[in-house]
Amino acid sequence: MTIDQGTARAELGVIGGSGLYALLDEVTEVRVDTPYGPPSDALFVGEVAGRRVAFLPRHGRGHGLPPHRINYRANLWALHSLGVRQVLGPCAVGGLREEYGPGTLLVPDQFVDRTAGRVQTYYDGQPLPDGSVPGVVHVPMADPYCPAGRRAVLEAARESAWEPVDGGALVVIEGPRFSTRAESRWFTANGWSAVGMTGHPEAVLARELGLCYTSSALVTDHDAGVEAGDGVTHAEVLEVFAGNVGRLRTVLFKALERLPAERDCVCSHALDGVATGLPGVGEGLPGVAAG
Ligand SMILES: [Zn+2]
Fold it and tell me: Which positions does UniProt annotate for phosphate binding (predicted)?
């Protein structure tokens, strides 16, 4: 069934591959428009453990959108507008250490932005179509991921007998090309753990809307600096991802069950007392309840 946004609601969100919503028995496909244009696809709203969950295929259902062309603002806005306040963002990454081989599940606690030219803020001074104007807002980003969400994913992975790597820095590159060996070795020399293409600005935009965001990074290959062969290929990445998507889905579903019903984390307070100027966001407009 496909509907326009209307009264569709969800409290939890997952931005990930299109294999994820297929597990739900019943989904309603919800088309959402945003002031920033359309999101990557319709949102697939269903239920996990009695809670309403919205899935958004990050690259669109046909995987037609490369990382640098994704409308990240529209994606996060669409989830927020359905009522989603906690988001899990699984992604495929390259391992930057010998011990992080294919099949490793990393739950990073930091990211490093090496992207270029991506729109990465809602607070850019540009008026929205409804005439509202975003304020000048600087959100804290020292700890970019939700502590409660990270706990939920880590516990869910351990419960699934998939020992995760707890913490580490995810380098986000512009893509769509993979890293050179020199870039990759430099990332490793800096002590960073994995490299991907979608983690930024997803985490930042979530924080700017007061959403909880948790990254869970599935290592699909050794990045160029730590592997001895001809370098990473897209086919290898897809093959390893396909081989792990089942257990990743299990972990995500267990994590969704564990996400707290009431939030009291750094993300939930990021916009306390902030006049965002954005409708429905934080203390955005007079008379609009805090998200
Ligand atoms: Zn949080």
Answer: 18, 58-59, 198
First-to-last alpha carbon distance for the chain, in angstroms, is 28
164 neighbors 153 (Cβ within 8 angstroms): yes
- Total tally of structural domains belonging to the chain: 1
Q: Which of 91, 111, 115, 116 shows the shortest CA–CA distance to 190?
A: 111
Model pTM?
Answer: 0.93
Question: Which residue segment(s) compose the domain that 141 sits in?
Answer: 2-258
Q: What is the CATH number of the domain that holds 92?
A: 3.40.50.1580
Q: CA 222 to CA 111: how far, in whole Å? A: 18
Ion ligand 1: residues, Cβ under 5 Å: 146, 212, 265, 267
pLDDT in tens, 225-254: 887 777 778 888 888 888 898 999 999 999
Q: What whole-number distance in Å separates Cα of residue 204 and Cα of residue 210?
A: 10
Q: Which of 4, 223, 264, 272 is catalytic?
A: 223
Q: How many angstroms does the Cα of residue 266 sit away from the middle of ligand 1?
A: 6
Note whether residue 72 is domain-resident: yes
**Beta-strand pair 86-95/194-196:** antiparallel
Quote the CA–CA distance of 141 and 87 in Å, as a whole number: 16
Sequence-distant (6+) residues with CB within 8 A of 78 are 32, 34, 39, 43, 56
